[in-house]
Design a protein that fits this description.
By secondary structure, the chain is of the alpha+beta class. The chain contains 12 helices and 18 strands.
């Protein structure tokens, strides 16, 4: 198996080209950017960003079949990464032979507009530390009791319930609010606790069926990109303990994406081999106003830390009963110690947030200022009526203080007996779900 390369030194370690040599790579390893006027640009061995459209236009000879396919895909990062290995190899050779007139120095934009965005909580340490970090937020925002009760319920799941790591948790984000490197990150109008989250995301470039195989998933993973999942933590705390529909507004305002899209074969191979996850993984870092923000130990984080499941399993689960299409983006979760919630530090208006990841480049954004119409999330009125009064809430809490202890004792005893007597997924305690024909027959009888 291939191990991650030794840490690079110097200020440009994040631009180091990671080159696995024993991964059985099936496709050429490429790095792409997008320019609004010159289309997709490919980085050659001399570290030049070469416009493929310009390089094709400069050719005097007739275009080959592979070059004709490059021509049709040179305006889209997603389309180019979906091409065959022969076409990608031809694109690499085209960039290497291009003249200086085809080189683009600046002006790059968001590499692609995601068709959809799903973001998972893969890293075990981040999830556990984030729960502890929410204590301070919930305490100051008036949600400590509700959050404590919800955590007790999660930790006391019965064996035939959902194991905390049995199926990866994720949410659907907003693909329309992505911003590029250098753009200002807007401050949400209802946010008081703004946070950053360093993540690596994977781009889907080929269709994935609803019952995908591991091979199908591996062929669909086109590339990786660095993202910053900006989060309104006080809004998140309210959403977690109120309606219960998950993340709605807390992560919808902005997600930043780096300029570089790295082909998947450069960092990953089936079985989670490759420098992305093997060994220590890729070294990552967060700097706010030039100061490195790290965990309590002061050690630099990396992508090789423990995860709840493999990347293949994560994508297969997301595709279950839905399928995936080219252009969809999947975040793999916050790398541990790479968000303020875990280390107890929060962004302020005007802060410059710079993320970097070995082999994936950098992502820098300046945090905007709250709008003039800013308000507390609890004060947002959608016509649902006034919240319950203080006296009513106090009486309800007092009643629960009397009723809950004996009720909780009875439930815990019942839970202990259920856990001991449970016979497994195929046991008699789990009744089979009715099939579609059975449902139809029952409906016909009622008629």
């Amino acid at each position: 198996t291939t191990r991650a390369p030794e840490p690079q030194t110097g200020a440009d370690w994040h631009t180091h080209r990671l080159t696995p040599t024993t991964l059985g790579v099936a496709r050429p390893m490429v790095r792409l950017r997008l320019h609004p006027s010159f289309g997709v640009c490919l980085r050659d061995q001399e570290q030049r960003w070469v416009s493929l459209e310009q390089a094709l236009a400069a050719k005097a000879a007739a275009l080959s079949a592979a070059e004709e396919e490059i021509k049709t895909s040179a305006g889209s990062v997603v389309a180019l990464l979906a091409c065959s290995p022969a076409v990608l190899e031809a694109a690499t050779e085209l960039a290497a032979a291009a003249s200086a007139s085809c080189v683009v120095e600046s002006g790059f934009v968001l590499p692609f507009q995601p068709r959809s965005f799903r973001d998972a909580g893969s890293y075990v340490q981040h999830m556990s530390q984030a729960v502890r970090g929410f204590v301070a937020v919930a305490g100051k925002e008036g949600h400590l009791l509700q959050m404590a009760l919800s955590q007790i319920g999660k930790s006391l799941r019965l064996p035939f319930g959902v194991n905390p790591a049995a199926r990866p948790g994720y949410y659907h984000g907003n693909p329309c609010t992505f911003i590029a490197d250098g753009d200002e990150a807007p401050w949400p109008s209802t946010c008081g606790w703004l946070d950053y989250e360093l993540e690596v995301a994977v781009l889907i470039t080929r269709p994935v069926s609803r019952e995908a195989t591991a091979a199908e998933v591996a062929a669909a993973l086109g590339g990786f990109v660095l993202i910053n999942d900006f989060s309104a933590r006080d809004v998140q705390a309210d959403e977690l303990v109120s309606v219960g529909f998950g993340f709605v507004k807390c992560k919808a305002a902005a997600t930043a994406m780096g300029l570089d899209v790295v082909s998947s074969d450069e960092l990953w191979a089936p079985g989670d081999r490759g420098s992305l996850f093997e060994g220590r993984g890729l070294r990552v870092e967060v700097k706010v106003n030039g100061e490195a923000w790290r965990g309590a130990g002061g050690e630099q984080s990396s992508t090789g830390m423990a995860r709840a499941c493999s990347l293949e399993a994560l994508v297969r689960y997301m595709a279950l009963d839905e399928g995936l299409q080219p252009g969809e983006l999947i975040g793999m979760g916050t790398v541990p110690n790479c968000c303020g919630l875990e280390i107890g530090r929060w962004l302020q208006p005007g802060d410059e947030v710079a993320l970097s990841a070995e082999g994936l480049g950098t992502l820098t954004n300046t945090v905007g200022h709250p709008p003039a119409t800013a308000q507390n999330f609890k004060e947002v009125d959608c016509g649902g009526g006034a919240p319950p009064g203080r006296l009513r809430t106090a009486l309800r809490c007092a009643l629960l203080a009397v009723v809950l202890p004996p009720l909780t004792f009875a439930l815990m005893v019942g839970g202990a007996l259920s856990a001991l007597l449970w016979r497994g997924p195929a046991g008699v305690l789990r009744s089979p779900a009715p099939t579609v024909p059975a449902i139809r027959r029952a409906a016909d009888k009622r008629r």
